[in-house]
Design a protein that fits this description.
By secondary structure, the chain is an alpha/beta fold. The chain has 14 helices and eight strands. The longest helix is centred in the middle third of the chain and has 23 residues.
Amino acid sequence: MKDLKHLIFFENLLQDAQNELVTKAVEEGKHALGYNCYYLPEVLLNLDGCFSTRLRAPRCTSTDVATYYMTGRTCPYVRSILERAIEGGYNYLSAVFGSESCAAMERMEEHLYLLNPIKHENFFVTIIDPPMRGDKTHLDYYKAQLRKHVLAPMEKVLKADTSDEAMRRAIERFNELCEVITQIGEFRKLDNPPITGYEFHVIQVVSEVCPHELILPYLKETLEEIKTREPEPSFPFRARVVLAGSEVDDPDFTKLIETCGAMVVADRYCFGSLPSREKIEILDGESAFDAICRHYLHWNQCARFMDGMKIDQRHSELLRLAREYKADGIIYENMKFCEFWSYEKVLASHIMSAENGIPCCTIEKEYALGSVGQLRTRFQAFVESLEIKKINE
């Protein structure tokens, strides 16, 4: 296929946390608000005068200093974020909005407060205690946490407008971005898509780390380009897979899978678009804030949820994606030392394969994509098994 016009530009934006669009927005006087988890509603961090940027540590090759504070038996993603902060890589941030998604995540966020490595005027760290169930009681608790630890400091320290009208404007802008990303992602359902999983991964991540109003024109132009893009004469991959699991913010991981012969057609992982790019609907008689909280609690697929309703939702949603995107199998990954996704990977892969007949490949990975020989072997063997399954059928 012909190269996408803005792909190299998008790839360059992912080389540094403070890319050129982030720098431009900060220089225009906007507050850059870092966050790590879907539990923090992205739309709230994009109220007037603010913009969200999901924290990454691209090209992080060593976490020696962060390991001193957090030990080497904690998630390499959070250690990489702390390392990059100590290196001075996040000094453009006005605040970090954290979530006690897991003990390692919370510990990293606490160190951002205790060590004070981010040097920015009036910088602050705030952490919510997210719910572990999806019922009304936990929805009310979620609302209270977001009011206290998100809206209150945004209003007091950043002087942000947190009124219902301001939230409705933020929802409108957010929905516009979601619509573009969703339309691009829909092409992956085709038998011979005009976009690869790697390209979509790049597009999705830049939409999370860049100011929405600055990246949106490029995304719209890319959507129009894909609509008329001629795909390969025949499907160039040997299989189609859904990638599910914890943090995957490096598109080169998706590229690795695709060089082994399997196209990643759906991204059900942290930093992915499923969920994160669903449009927010405000019901009749509902405030904008209530709509945001309801939306994020419903769509959240985090393995931290322990109640049966949310566990069943995770499995049924993944099954839906596998069928809707015509996937031949599912790759489950978890970050090394990630407790929640380690358990979920074992349970869900059994349910998908034994009860639904969908082959699964489970792997554990580091944050930085270093030595990939073992992963490549696993992915190649999985693709071959999917081909054999097709032949036997």
